[in-house]
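--- STAGE predict ---
source: upstream dedup step, 1 unique chain passed
mode: sequence only
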Amino acid sequence: MTMLDQIVETVVVLVKCVVLTIIASVKALLPMGILPRKSVKGQVVLITGSGSGLGRGMAVEFAKLGAKVVLWDINEKGNLETKHMLDDMKAEVEGEAGEAILG
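--- STAGE serialize ---
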């Protein structure tokens, strides 16, 4: 690889970095409702560590969005608690929440 090729490659990488940084900054500064969001309604979402903490929180949020949530955790008791939470939430929301599947 010649010196000129290395310089061109470096410039291309720097330009890509600048462009992607500008795009990310604009997306971060825009209000939430302006950009379209991906719909997960009806999609299968596997949550590992769903028995507590962050995994449980993610399971609840994905269920609110209408996803079919697969719960997976080494802690069976916590996993069942999360499933019961999702089942109760599904009853409260009258079918809007996703379906909970134990893994």
